[in-house]
Write a structure and sequence with these properties.
about 800 residues, alpha+beta, PH-domain like, two-stranded antiparallel sheet, 37 helices, elongated
Length: about 800
């Protein structure tokens, strides 16, 4: 549809009294059979879908504002607005609404909703009493005028009548001329009356009156009237602030006079609303809704006019990135963009999308990359605010820019690395800027907002880029403050001596890394393993700053929470529970957050039954932990450990008695469990002669038994799905420390100075079982059977690892 007169935007007022854009389309008025009346229809210009279908009700109050707006309420707390592209279209639809309601199109509002009692009261009054008769605009009558304005505020109908009277014959301008007379005469009583009058007129909530009061030749007089609050001993100096203190700076000359006037007007009206007018009471809060709308639509218009002036924005960007630009000028340019982006928050999603795309096309991110690296703190702070607007609006846009940057030899010039550097070098003792930047980084690396169907590879590509070029910059302070040598001993005393600000920075970095563990499973796992990162982080368990020790513990807790055996093996091999248990023991019996957090870590391992970690903890640390009895966590871990050993024993028992073809093993095992437990065990063995049914497998088993009797260090050969056997070896503390050979040969069972191995209670022929790997168990009740089997089937000893 090419008729621009009927082109409109549909707005609804949300709970925060802000206008939400529901879309752009074309409006028409037509009879709708279903609604049984003339209705307003708005169809979207993009796809023709119905954006609005609203019956013109005879009792609904429609209001016309600023020549291009029609506002009304359809239900309680549900306000609607049509913003027309052209005044002619607004007038056309307004005439249609007035025609349906039988009203004069010259009115700015068709009617106000009133309660029945007020309606009845006015019906009983003579017709002439409906008219509000204003006293002559004279100094002597100011008190009478003030009383009249104040008295009508409680009545919607009288407010409307008073507004019509004030708009006629230039009454408001005459009142404001009286203000100048009173001020020249220093007539305080008259000035106090004018304060009540102007405040009351603002509460009439009429857009037509605002147009007059906020015009260039009236607005400063309005501000002047509001300076003379009767409750104040001395008047405020708002005009002095607006004309002398608050200076309008044109970073680039604005040639459009209408745009300049709109910027001035919006600033001053915002000042009236936020600074001059007192906070409205519960009964007055709706009196200024039109004022809020006036400011909102002004801001929308300003952003649109600036956005359309590409020459202006291009010049701003050129000066912002020009090395020859003076520092003071650059500071003003950055502050302009900050205000520009703040104004854009009033736009609705579609308009904001176009706004930020315009900035992106003009090179806003390249400019930020330059100014965020400057020494000027004000410039950096403003640039950070602009960057936060961009990230919150479209993280994907920022990620796309970052990945398209030319790969410099120096990674520090990349935008994300510039952001990380700003976070690390924040001079604020409370790290306010670092906290803000860390939140932005978290948004950028969050996979939850990388799921756009338009770019399915975004997650993989960006995370690969981040871990390749940026992660080492992020973790540099952490690694620098946890320096250790090849024996994992802390070098120097830096870890104990860094200040509170450094500790806060390390805590922020750990918080981000903890987030990565939860959301970046593969990339962060590789990084932790390659850098031995957990060991370095656990050095911070010795920190004098308890909050930092808790951050380190939280990092380990999140890793264990993944229940990933790669992580578990890494922790076991590195003996990484040692600093945690040392901290627990050093903490003694003090009941504090650190104590509770460490116990919760072990409680989680127990409840989730993470077998490899349970075996490692009990084998190496139980003697040190068994004295802790104020919680049952460690006794519970010991119980889990014993239960697992019993299960392994039973499993070996079954495997000794019933060796079957692998394809039928599960079925036969299930049948065995269903048999009566009271059956004689000897009879069961007699019925199923392994040596007769499976002579080859049985022979291998007997040979393996001989190996077991001759070498205590070897484990029982485990049956593989192919029918062959393989050997596994127990992990000693030495193996956990990396002394187990790479060729798979068993290491000697040694005990580290910090470990507390549990003594084995098995028979002499049973090797010590360490980490939960299945070990040999001797069965006293099978000795006779073993001797008989050995006599019947002597065989060659199988080779290790076969």
């Amino acid at each position: 549809m090419s008729d621009t007169r009927r082109r409109v935007k549909v707005y609804t007022l949300n709970e925060d009294r802000q206008w939400d854009d529901r879309g752009t389309g074309h409006v028409s008025s037509t009879f709708v059979e279903r609604l049984k009346g003339i209705s307003l229809l708005v169809r979207a210009e993009s796809d023709g879908s119905l954006l609005l279908e609203s019956k013109i009700s005879p009792n609904t109050a429609y209001q016309k504002q600023q020549d291009t707006l029609i506002v009304w309420s359809e239900a309680e707390n549900y306000d609607l607005a049509l913003s027309f592209q052209e005044k002619a279209g607004c007038d056309e639809i307004w005439e249609k609404i007035c025609q349906v309601q039988g009203k004069d199109p010259a009115l700015e509002i068709t009617q106000d909703p009133i309660d029945e009692s007020e309606e009845e009261r006015f019906e009983e009054m003579p017709e002439t009493s409906h008219l509000v008769e204003l006293p002559p605009c004279e100094l002597a009558r100011l008190e009478e005028i003030a009383d009249l304005v104040t008295s009508v505020l409680s009545s919607p109908i009288r407010r409307e009548k008073l507004a019509l009277a004030l708009m006629s014959e230039g009454y408001m301008k005459k009142l404001l001329q009286l203000f100048q007379v009173c001020e020249d005469l220093d007539n305080r009583e008259g000035l106090h009356h004018l304060y009540e009058i102007v405040r009351g007129v603002l509460f009439l909530n009429k857009a037509a009156l605002f147009e007059v009061m906020f015009s260039d030749d009236c607005i400063m007089d309005v501000v002047g009237c509001l300076e003379y609050d009767p409750a104040l001993v001395q008047p405020k100096r708002h005009r002095e602030f607006l004309t002398k203190t608050a200076k309008f700076k044109e970073v680039i000359p604005i040639t459009d006079s209408e745009l300049r006037q709109k910027i001035h007007q919006t600033y001053r009206v915002q000042y009236i609303q936020d600074i001059i007018l007192p906070t409205p009471s519960v009964f007055e809060e709706n009196f200024l809704s039109t004022l809020t709308s006036f400011i909102f639509f002004n801001k929308v218009e300003i952003v649109s006019m600036l956005q359309e002036d590409e020459k202006f924005l291009t010049e701003v960007f050129a000066q912002l990135t020009d090395e020859a630009t003076e520092d003071g000028k650059r500071r003003e340019l950055v502050n302009f963009f900050k205000e520009f982006c703040a104004f854009s928050q009033t736009l609705q999603p579609q308009n904001r999308d176009a706004f930020f795309k315009t900035l992106a096309n003009l090179g806003i991110l390249s400019a930020l990359e330059i100014v965020m690296g400057m020494d000027d703190l004000q410039v950096r702070a403003a640039a950070t605010d602009i960057f936060s607007y961009l990230v919150e609006f479209s993280p994907s846009m920022v990620r796309e820019f970052v990945m398209q940057e030319p790969q410099q030899t120096d990674d520090d010039v990349l935008l994300i690395n510039v952001v990380i550097k700003q976070m690390i070098c924040d001079s604020d003792p409370e790290l306010g800027g670092a906290v803000q930047l860390m939140g932005l980084l978290r948004t950028l690396i969050d996979p939850e907002n990388m799921l756009a169907p338009t770019n399915k590879t975004e997650k993989t590509e960006f995370l690969s880029f981040f871990y390749k070029y940026c992660m080492q910059v992020l973790t540099a302070p952490l690694l620098a403050n946890t320096v250790d040598d090849k024996h994992s001993k802390v070098v120097g005393s830096d870890v104990f001596c860094y200040n509170f600000q450094t500790a806060q920075l390390l805590a922020l970095i750990l918080e981000l890394l903890t987030f990565c563990v939860e959301h970046h499973t593969y990339h962060i796992k590789t990084y932790i393993m390659n850098k031995d990162l957990l060991r370095r982080v656990l050095v911070l368990m010795n920190s004098k700053h308890t909050f930092l020790a808790l951050c380190a513990l939280r990092f380990m807790r999140r890793i264990i929470g993944q229940k990933d055996e790669y992580y578990n093996r890494y922790i076991i091999k590195g003996n990484l529970f040692e600093p945690v248990i040392s901290t627990l023991l050093d903490n003694g019996t003090r009941y504090n957050l650190l104590n509770s957090a460490i116990i919760e870590l072990f409680e989680f391992i127990k409840v989730e039954d993470i077998k490899s970690l349970i075996a490692h903890i009990i084998d190496n640390y139980y003697k040190a932990l068994e004295s802790i009895e104020y919680v049952q966590t460690f006794k519970g871990l010991k119980g889990r450990y014993e239960q697992e050993k019993d299960r392994q024993t039973q499993r070996l028992n079954r495997s000794v008695r019933y060796r079957r073809d692998p394809r039928t093993l599960d079925e036969d095992e299930e049948m065995w469990f269903n048999e009566d437990e009271d059956d004689d065990e000897g009879e069961a063995i007699e019925k199923s002669r392994p040596e007769e049914e499976f002579p080859e497998s049985y022979g291998k088993y007997i040979e393996a038994k001989k190996v077991k009797e001759s070498e205590d260090k070897e484990n029982f050969p485990k049956r593989t799905p192919t029918g062959s056997f393989k050997f596994t070896f127990s992990h000693s503390t030495g193996a956990a420390n990396g002394t187990n050979g790479a060729n798979g040969k068993p290491a000697a069972s040694t005990t580290s100075p910090n470990s507390s191995p549990v003594k084995s209670t098995a028979s002499p022929a049973t090797p010590v079982v360490k980490t939960g790997v299945v070990g040999l168990v001797d069965y006293p009740d099978d000795e006779d059977e073993e001797e008989e089997d050995e006599e019947q089937s002597p065989r060659k000893r199988p080779r290790l690892g076969s």
